[in-house]
Amino acid sequence: MHRRSLVAALVATALIGGCTDKAESAPARPAAPVNAPVIDYAQWRAGMSAPVADPLYPRLGNPALDVLHYGLDLAWQPGTATLTGTATLRIRPAADAAQIKLDFKPYRLDRVTVDGAAVPGAAVTAEKLVVPVAVRRDRPVTLVVAYHGAPSTTPMPSHRTDTEPLGLTVTKDRALWTMQEPYGAYTWYPANDHPSDEALYDIAVTVPKGWSAVAAGTPAGRSGTTFRYRSTDPVATYLQTLAVGRYRKITARGPHGLPLTYWYRPGVDDKVVPSLRKSPAFIAFLEKRFGPYPFPTGGIVMVDSASGMETQQMITMGGKIRKLDAAGFEEDLLHEYAHQWFGNSVTPTNWNDLWLNEGWATYAQFLYAQSIQKFSDEQLEYSLRKRDAELRKGLGPPAHPKAANFAESNVYICPAAMLKELNDALGDKRFFALATAWVQTQRNTQQTRASFTAFVNRQSGRDFTGLINAWLDSPSTPN
Prior knowledge:
Elements: H1 6-15, E1 65-77, E2 82-93, E3 100-103, E4 108-114, E5 117-118, E6 123-125, E7 128-131, E8 141-149, E9 167-170, E10 176-179, E11 199-206, E12 212-215, E13 218-223, E14 226-235, E15 242-245, E16 248-253, E17 259-264, H2 273-276, H3 279-290, E18 298-303, E19 308-309, E20 315-318, H4 326-339, E21 346-348, H5 355-373, H6 377-395, H7 410-426, H8 428-441, E22 445-447, H9 449-460, H10 465-473
Parallel strand pairs: 1-11, 17-18, 18-20, 21-22
Antiparallel strand pairs: 1-2, 2-8, 3-7, 4-5, 4-8, 6-7, 9-10, 11-14, 12-15, 13-14, 16-17, 19-20
């Protein structure tokens, strides 16, 4: 997620000399119908995860379940503002449990089955879908949920000025868009809504004639007004996206022939199209420092938001721009592209480690701005340290975020300052070799602070534990 003008404001100070600124055991589940199909769950092995409970938002997610694959068949009817869906979830229970419990908004349930057997007692209560079927650890099941209703959002736990309610949003003209970090996927499909449970996806969205539907993943064809997308790399729920509206599409090629797609709303987003077209250059800048782009396709979809989000393979950018600052907008795009490596391909295990995403993306953004504006390392150092001190005083250190202050500036600037210190200690050649090794050898995994620290020490041949701990934990800026 970007902070609009975050880097621009800090860089401005640099350019003027830095003047300012346990799971419940259960009996065996009922047997599936005799004619139930035999399913080979091995095909979704890439979606296996090790879910955990979250320390900041413990009501979201279920560590007893590992969703391997989401098959979402959706239809949007703007005239009645009704979303109709059938979600097919391939689930590996991570523990024995008396029921299947997932995050889900209170849509009307039309049908719920487990391995083809109807479950009439399924219900949505307190934003949880509860399916009273016992499951056993490592005995996969297929859950199918058919539902319909009007989408509604959930509050954002943050004081940021550029945030809106989370989840599937209906605009005045009955279009749809979503941003859902740290949660909110459950506002449009039943989900294990936590970053530690990544899964594969197949999504089909049917829309009215003349409308388009955009989702994360690789475009998988179109049949009439049904748009399809597939993710063969695992995706965290917060990195999924959906946008429906009257879009125009531009196709392009990035480095090594990488297919790119930009979706924009004619008459609304025209002014940012030249910036969208610079995506190949942004990706090339990042590849030079962090190695090959980690996914088979990329792109951007513009939506009616004031913010932006690093949704996987299809960045979601807000088009609520009073006066376009093209340079600032492009730095934000670079930031979101950087997240494809840091956060998407390598994902944090829980929300205490958001710094591991945002610090890297922000540092990449500073490096890009520096390449354009030619400010010195000394200017960047001065401004980073000054802003770091202010943020630690007001929000605390980056590794100890408060639940009510999600994704505020301390998890961006403070770890970016730490990464600059690491860069200074190692020099560019060794630092970028370390960064490249981190994202390329840990692809499609969930990582933690401990694993990152161990990797840095191992890769560099030096002990940076003290430096990392100081910058992540200290109430004041480390010396």
